[in-house]
């Protein structure tokens, strides 16, 4: 099985390659350190598996969920394994919904990546143990609360609700009679408290949590 690796940290690439070489099921045929490099590599290098970081320098094509969705549209048959530092269950689920065949946290054990490759070879998906634990915990809490409002102040929650409904920061400022700077700060504070770094991830998290129906 021919594999392409993508991560903006050379040490991570080195570790992934070492694990795959030791296992022997997959041969690394290319490596990329940004989304743009990845697209160029895929265009000219036949492969059977992509193992990529979730968040890399985006370039022209985007990163995160946008990258997964574009990859799935362009290469519908290419198995994609995401290796990420993210442990937020809503975002992990969003990666799967966007088209990932497998998800591993970067703290995965030495056995998990070979197991993931074997699962892909057999036409199955694969989730690392920590990912499964996060998703199971998320399901267990879903009946208690669709969204953890305790993390956000009432003003932050109000801004998030309006923002994901489609209003711009300027629109929200006008509606709530606050300054644009204040609304922008409240939005960023809410994202920080939720462990979210992009608007796309905020939208996905809100949808999965039930705030956005």
TrEMBL record:
Keywords: DNA-binding, Phosphoprotein. Residues 145-210 form the HTH luxR-type domain. Pfam families: GerE (PF00196), Response_reg (PF00072). GO terms for biological process: phosphorelay signal transduction system; regulation of DNA-templated transcription. Residues 2-121 form the Response regulatory domain. SMART domains: HTH_LUXR, REC. The keyword Lipid metabolism does not apply. This is DNA-binding response regulator. It comes from Dyella tabacisoli.
């Amino acid at each position: 099985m021919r594999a392409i690796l993508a991560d903006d940290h050379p040490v991570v690439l080195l570790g992934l390659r070492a694990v795959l070489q030791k296992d022997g099921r997959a041969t690394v045929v290319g490596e990329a350190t940004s989304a743009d490099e990845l697209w160029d590599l895929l265009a000219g290098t036949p492969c059977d598996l992509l193992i990529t970081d979730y968040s890399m320098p985006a370039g022209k094509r985007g990163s995160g969920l946008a990258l997964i969705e574009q990859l799935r549209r362009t290469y519908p048959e290419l198995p994609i394994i995401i290796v990420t530092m993210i442990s937020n269950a809503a975002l992990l689920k969003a990666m799967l919904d966007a088209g990932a065949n497998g998800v591993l946290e970067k703290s995965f054990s030495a056995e998990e990546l070979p197991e993931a490759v074997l699962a892909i070879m057999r036409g199955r998906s694969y989730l690392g143990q920590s990912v499964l634990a996060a998703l199971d915990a998320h399901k267990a809490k879903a009946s208690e609360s669709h969204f953890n409002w305790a993390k956000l102040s009432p003003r932050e929650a109000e801004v998030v609700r309006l923002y994901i409904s489609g209003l711009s920061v300027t629109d929200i400022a006008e509606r709530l009679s606050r300054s644009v700077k204040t609304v922008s700060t409240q939005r960023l504070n809410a994202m920080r408290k939720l462990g979210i770094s992009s608007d796309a991830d905020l939208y996905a998290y809100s949808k999965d949590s039930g705030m956005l129906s």
